[in-house]
């Protein structure tokens, strides 16, 4: 985003809406730090800010790579033209009752890096993906972050994107249940290396007796799940074609 210095009157209305404090008053004009800006669009949405002079505008080239990654991973109103995967980011394992991605004996894991409120660099995201790749993780095909990797087996992000920063990105994969403990142990180890925050999502199926097999593992590792965690009721019809044809994305 850019602020037209001729139109700006320095009212400062836009400043509190930037999630990464990329907007500041310099002299009597508002200025956007181009390196810090995530291109999330908060400052330009008329229903949110209503700049009295219409001084904020999209910079030419915002939808071109590699800068476009910032927009597509930060603005929920856009689709991923770079990665060719539809939606804000991913269908995620939370839609398991209609996609059937996670079956009995498996766990679905999603790490949303940079959320809430801090954002994340691709360097931090790569620390996570490379660390998990050491465990033989196969990253979710229908996830835009996966499509930015130059080497999926090693979790390496393509060099052209490593200088970018986004509001958040989701690392997503499914693994056999017996890998849950080593995966979460690795996640706790990697967390200490990050200069941001992340949310951990874990999906598994109930056992026939109504218990959740993941809970004892979480307790052993000192991880306390939120009491208001999402519970899907299985009201959807499993998307069996997705399970049979792993190469395609559920829709």
Structural class: alpha+beta
Oligomeric state, counting identical vs distinct chains: single chain
Give the CATH level 1 class of the largest domain.
Answer: Alpha Beta
CATH topology of the largest domain: Alpha-Beta Plaits
Sequence of secondary-structure elements: EEEEHHEEHEEEEHEHH
| Sheet with the most strands: spatial strand order | 10-5-11
Distance between the termini: 32 Å
How much of the polypeptide forms β-strand, as a percent range? Answer: 15-25%
Number of strands: 11
Show unreliable segments.
none
Q: Describe the biggest sheet?
A: 3 strands, antiparallel
Structural domain tally: 2
Q: What percent of residues adopt helix (DSSP H or I)? A: 10-25%
Rg of Cα set: 20 Å
**CATH superfamily placement of the largest domain:** ACT domain
What is the count of helical runs?
6
Task: Note the main attributes of this structure.
19% helix; 3-stranded antiparallel beta sheet; 4 iron, 4 sulfur cluster binding; elongated; Alpha-Beta Plaits; 4Fe4S_Fe-S-bd; metal ion binding; 11 strands; 251 residues; 2 domains; alpha+beta; two-stranded antiparallel sheet; 17% strand
Describe the structure.
The protein has 251 residues and is α+β, with helices and mostly antiparallel strands. The chain has 2 domains: 1-60, Alpha-Beta Plaits (2-Layer Sandwich), CATH 3.30.70; 68-227 and 236-244, ACT domain (Alpha-Beta Plaits, 2-Layer Sandwich), CATH 3.30.70.260. Helix content is 19%, strand content 17%. The chain has helices at residues 68-74, 96-99, 122-133, 180-191, 214-220, 240-244, and strands spanning 2-3, 23-26, 29-32, 56-57, 106-113, 120-121, 149-151, 156-157, 165-166, 169-176, 198-203. The protein has a 3-stranded antiparallel β-sheet with strand order 10-5-11, covered by helices on one side. A hairpin with a 2-residue loop joins strand 2 and strand 3. The model has no long low-confidence stretch (mean pLDDT 83).
């Amino acid at each position: 985003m850019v602020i037209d210095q001729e139109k700006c009157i320095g009212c400062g209305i836009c400043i509190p809406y930037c999630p990464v404090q990329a907007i500041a008053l310099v002299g009597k004009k508002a200025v956007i730090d181009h390196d810090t800006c995530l291109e999330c669009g908060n400052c330009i949405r008329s229903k949110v800010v209503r700049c009295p002079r219409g001084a904020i505008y999209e910079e030419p080239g915002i939808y071109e790579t590699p800068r476009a990654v910032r927009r597509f991973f930060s603005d929920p109103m856009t689709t991923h033209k770079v990665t060719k995967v539809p939606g804000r980011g991913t269908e995620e394992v939370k839609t398991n009752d209609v996609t059937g991605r996670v079956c009995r004996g498996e766990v679905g894991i999603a790490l949303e890096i940079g959320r809430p409120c801090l954002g994340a660099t691709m360097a931090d995201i790569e620390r996570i993906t490379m660390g998990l790749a050491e465990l033989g993780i196969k990253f979710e095909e229908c996830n835009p972050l996966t499509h930015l990797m130059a080497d999926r087996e090693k979790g390496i992000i393509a060099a052209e994107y490593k200088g970018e920063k986004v509001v958040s990105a989701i690392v997503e994969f499914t693994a056999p249940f017996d890998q849950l403990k080593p995966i979460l142990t690795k996640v706790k180890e990697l967390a200490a290396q990050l200069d941001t925050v992340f949310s951990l999502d874990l999906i598994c199926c109930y056992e026939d007796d109504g218990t959740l097999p993941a809970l004892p593992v979480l307790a052993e590792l000192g991880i306390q799940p939120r009491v208001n965690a999402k519970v899907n009721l299985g009201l959807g019809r499993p998307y069996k074609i997705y399970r049979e044809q792993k190469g395609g994305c559920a829709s």
